[in-house]
Amino acid sequence: MTVRPVLSAVALGLSLVLLTGCGNTIRGVGRDLGNAVDATQDAGRSVVNSVK
Fold it and tell me: Does the model's pTM come out above 0.70?
């Protein structure tokens, strides 16, 4: 057994782990942005209702 196939397998495994982490991070950022939009809209409604 040579070193090259072992290193390739290790590199592939590490790549999969890193890509999985990135997917979770991107999903979390999307949720955070959605919550920020909702909070901004709620604040705008509150301002409009307080002026009436």
Answer: no
